Amino acid sequence: AFSFLTYNAGGDGDDVWPFVTREDKLHYDCSKLDQWQVVFDHAQTLGLYLHFKMQETENDDSFLNGKTVVIPEALDGGDLGVERKLYCRELIARFGHELALNWNLGEENTQTPAQQTAMAQFIHDTDPYHHHIVIHTYPDWQDRVYSKLLGDKSVLTGASLQNPWNQVHARTLKWVRESERAGRPWVVANDEQNPASLGVPPDEGYQGFDGKAVEKDKPAYTLHDIRKFTLWGNLMAGGAGVEYYFGYKLPQNDLVCEDWRSREKSWNYAKIALEFFQTERIPFWEMQNMDALVGNEKNDNSKYCFAKRGELYLVYLPNGVRDGDVELDLAGVTGRLNVMWFNPRVGGPLQFGTVRAINAGGKVVLGRPPSDPEEDWLAVIRR
Questions:
Q1: Using CA atoms, how far apart are residues 4 and 1, in angstroms rounded to an integer?
Q2: Would you give the end-to-end CA distance of the chain in angstroms?
Q3: Residue among 315, 314, 289 at smallest CA distance from 303
Q4: Across-strand partners of 382?
Q5: DSSP string for 274-332
Q6: What are the tens digits of pLDDT across the range 210-262?
Q7: What residues have CB less than 8 Å from 220, skipping those under 6 apart?
Q8: Which pLDDT belongs to residue 334?
Q9: Using CA atoms, how far apart are residues 166 and 230, in angstroms rounded to an integer?
Q10: Residue-level pLDDT at 325
């Protein structure tokens, strides 16, 4: 997947709009949109999912610092008027036929709940294909924004999360569960990793980069931490996956990136994860997070469990087994299950560790992986 803004006038880049001129919101540039179509068609042939971020926080409404002001770039001042309806209809009519996409109401969206629900409803009613509809907002706005859109309060089908890179698991799990409780389960992805200045760092050695993302007064982190706590953190919470944000202080950042090879290792780690789910035919749609079964009632980053109770358990160990044997609680389950290990750093076939099978019925020890016990591993326990 890759995400992109289709309208950012007044925003960080201030260089994208579908109109004939920046200010003319009622006449669309057909030549420009045809060029966009070439890009989107090419992406689809490569199997890339299109994430349309339809506006930016600077132009989504007429509120600034808590006050109502005139923001010329805002379509109808945030309301569902002629400008906004035409904009949504034009994008849907031109690009809605693409096979894999979602409509995102906006990046760091600050519209009112009434404006958000009206826009989402119009997209839903206009799009004949009923593509996925999501919304993105600030990390500290999630409770105030998402809680008012859950269940039958809107036609949204998911959330687009921005969070610190090491909070992805907990925040993904929160909105998966909150939406389930509201009666309309959401598809929850993580597409922006904070801090904004760093995000996902380049590979070690790229343009002399030392591999460490350093924020003042906080521990450094690397792309290996992104693999563990962002990528696998989201997947093991029952999330839909991740898109990677490139912080503005690092090489090839979000506004100027021309070389996606700068994060080649991170793309490879994502490919390895996807191939695991496909090759092993993991029925993720029938599974849910069960961190408590591995003693992680707080849903922190110590270890994760994603399972179909009684049939299949995935136990991800970000820190390996350096802290001792890992136990899985199989109380209430009967029979014998096999234990194998997957290496999320290099991929490949499943391997046997020190324990090949366990008898269910209570807490069982999973043993150790076949090598490098201090590195991250995924234990696969299945009937």
A1: 10
A2: 33
A3: 315
A4: 312, 338
A5: HHHHHHTT--GGG-EE-GGGGT-TT--SS-EEEEETTTEEEEEETTTTTTS--EEE-TT
A6: 999 999 889 999 999 999 999 999 999 999 999 999 999 999 999 899 999 99
A7: 212, 213, 214
A8: 96
A9: 6
A10: 84
